[in-house]
Design goal:
Elements lengths: L3 E2 L13 E4 L5 E3 H4 L4 E6 L5 H17 L4 E7 L11 H11 L5 E3 L4 H5 L4 E2 L1 E6 L4 E5 L15 H11 L12 E4 L4
Parallel strand pairs: 4-5, 5-6
Antiparallel strand pairs: 1-10, 2-3, 2-6, 4-8, 7-10, 8-9
Length: 184
Amino acid sequence: MALTPSNMLSLGTKAPDFSLIDTISDKTISLNEAKGTHGTVIMFICNHCPFVKHVNEGIVQLANDYISNGIGFIAISSNDVENYPADAPHLMKENAQQEGFSFPYLYDKTQEVAKAYDAACTPDFYIFDKDLALVYRGQLDDSRPNNGIPVTGNDMRTALDALLNEEAISAHQKPSIGCNIKWF
């Protein structure tokens, strides 16, 4: 498994718009429909990546803790499903149900959305404010498979708490590390 870091999109970047199929509901969902009233978390994940599997429970807990505070959560898979069939849409739906996703799990078939966000790895996390300006990009926390550090979501929780309390979010942000997005 290759270690690929986030590209660290420039803070202040406006969230690129999209409309993608939600593999859970089989409906097309746009960014505008899924965004939160106070902020939006966009996560590039997939089914097979060991880094994503390691944090799935943590991202579900994070979403469950913040959705009621007006934070929207959106998961997107952009992987090449021809060469990585474990990431196919019907299996995304199964994975979302097994993991208890309380947020849409969208399929980026053309990979255009991942390119628009300059996403590089799974997982890759972005937090946008209520105006869809980027305020955080990087890691969930310091936990990685087999490093012995528990998954807490601390880095993202700190950023989300600051966003909700209208406090400054530190520009010192660590990139996420994971498997590279499987481009075709």
